Amino acid sequence: MRSDLGIATNPADPFDLRARRVHEAEGRGRRAFALFQAARHPGPLVWILPSHAPELPMLRGLPRGVGERLHLFRPMGETDLLWCIEEALRAVPVSLVIAEPEKPLSLTAGRRLQLAAEAGRTTGLMLIRQEAGSNATETRWACEPLASQPADSTLHQWALNKNKKGTLGRWVLNWNGTSAAFHMVSEARQRHEPAETAP
Q1: How far apart are alpha carbons 162 and 172 in whole angstroms?
Q2: With a threshold of 0.90, does the pTM exceed it?
Q3: Please, what is the average pLDDT of the chain?
Q4: Is residue 193 predicted with pLDDT exceeding 80?
Q5: Alpha carbon distances (Å) from 65 to 40, 137, 162
Q6: Shortest CA distance to 73 belongs to which of 45, 110, 37?
Q7: Domains (ranges, CATH) in the chain?
Q8: Poorest-confidence range of 14-18, 138-142, 188-192?
Q9: Which of 5, 39, 43, 161 is least enclosed, having the fewest CB within 10 Å?
Q10: Phi and psi dihedrals of 189, rounded to 5?
């Protein structure tokens, strides 16, 4: 099944992040999930990393159209990082704020970020370490890369573990990282009867 989905809210789109809210992604595939979301959100993008982070987004490796819209901030210290996230969420023209806090967010800090996202009409995505989420978050995604047989295949397993306004779920998809297009991968099932053959 192939999907070419835009940013418009679509109840059939399991990967649509609710606007004016802050979401979280954890796991080894969290940055791939963030890039996927960046490709789907039109307008300016802000990515906030600690100043000493050794890994930075490489502009030539980003999905088409993301590098031209991306603004990278590297504040010193956790307090400045949280301030930077809050101010970016309040900035009305920004469509998506991606941030990588080092420490777990307190309930107060998480609530402040939710209020900032509402005020700025912005979507936030916190890339967190395992089990370091905030109770104030709207959704929490567990993102893992999957091994696949074809060398050119890029499989991801994204599980929605927390959702304040809907159901939970787990999806396996093939996303090559060049656009917002993806292929859903059907779950393998064991066949108990022989396949029907044409006479």
Answers
A1: 17
A2: no
A3: 84
A4: no
A5: 10, 28, 30
A6: 45
A7: 17-138 (3.40.50.300)
A8: 188-192
A9: 43
A10: -125, 155
Relative orientation angle of helices 77-90 and 107-120, to the nearest 10 degrees:
30
Core vs surface per residue 107-145: b (16+ CB within 10 A) or e: eebbebbbebbeebebbbbbbbeeeebbebbbbbbbbbe
Q: Tell me, what DSSP letter sits at residue 132?
A: -
The pLDDT confidence band at residue 195, using thresholds 50, 70 and 90, is low
Question: Rounded distance, CA 122 to CA 72, Å?
Answer: 17
Q: Each residue of 102-148: pLDDT tens digit?
A: 999 999 999 999 999 999 999 999 999 988 888 999 999 999 998 87
Phi, psi of 118 (to 5 degrees): -65, -45
Question: Three-state SS string across 32-81, please?
Answer: HHHHHHHHHCCCCEEEECCCCCCCCCCHHHCCCCCCCCEEEECCCHHHHH
Stretch 9-20: mean pLDDT: 77
Sign of torsion over alpha carbons 62, 68, 70, 74:
positive
Does residue 85 contact residue 99 with C-beta atoms inside 8 Å?
yes
Contact by Cβ (8 Å): 94, 120 = yes
